[in-house]
Write a structure and sequence with these properties.
Layout: E1 12-15, E2 20-22, E3 31-35, H1 42-54, E4 62-67, H2 71-81, E5 86-89, H3 94-98, E6 102-107, E7 110-115, E8 118-122, E9 128-132, H4 139-148
Parallel strand pairs: 3-4, 4-5
Antiparallel strand pairs: 1-2, 1-5, 3-8, 6-7, 8-9
Length: about 150
């Protein structure tokens, strides 16, 4: 998993509208990249809506959510919750692996591979300034606001 001070791994994924998006296209702006397991689930909805609710407090910082969901499901998630930020589809978990957030998880005694909810704040030059592995959905907006006010 990348740490603060590391160069952010490059991304080139499809968004909820079917457009290809590169992380480098946001150069010159701060970017919060957050990985979440599945659109529409309670924790993921809490996290995404929390970020939506602080969007007017973060200046021109870009919010980018990444999950294994396909673009159509991401579009529905965005529309249903009025998110208004970029959601990227990573069905082959290429980005999740680059960021070290694809790993073993356990649920009800069953072990499986999946996205480990994590977030990364990247500065205007593409360097990670904050890395929050295994972040809780409710903590994501608070940590973002605190990091931006440092």
């Amino acid at each position: 998993m990348p740490h603060a001070g590391d160069r952010a791994p490059a991304l080139h994924l499809t968004d909820q509208n079917g457009n290809k998006v590169r992380l480098s296209s946001f150069k010159g702006r701060k970017v919060l990249v957050f990985f979440y397991p599945k659109a529409g689930t309670p924790g993921c909805t809490t996290q995404a809506c929390g970020l939506r609710d602080v969007a007017d407090e973060i200046g021109d910082t870009v919010i980018v959510g990444i999950s294994p969901d396909l673009p159509g499901k991401l579009a529905t998630f965005d529309e249903k919750n009025g998110l208004g930020f970029t959601l990227l589809s990573d069905p082959d978990h290429v980005a999740a692996e680059k960021y070290g957030v694809w790993g073993e998880k356990k649920l009800y005694g069953k072990t499986y591979m999946g996205v480990i909810r994590s977030a990364f704040l990247i500065d205007e030059t593409g360097t990670i300034t904050h890395a929050w592995p295994k972040i809780s959905p409710k903590d994501t907006p608070e940590r973002l606001l605190a990091a931006l006010s440092e």
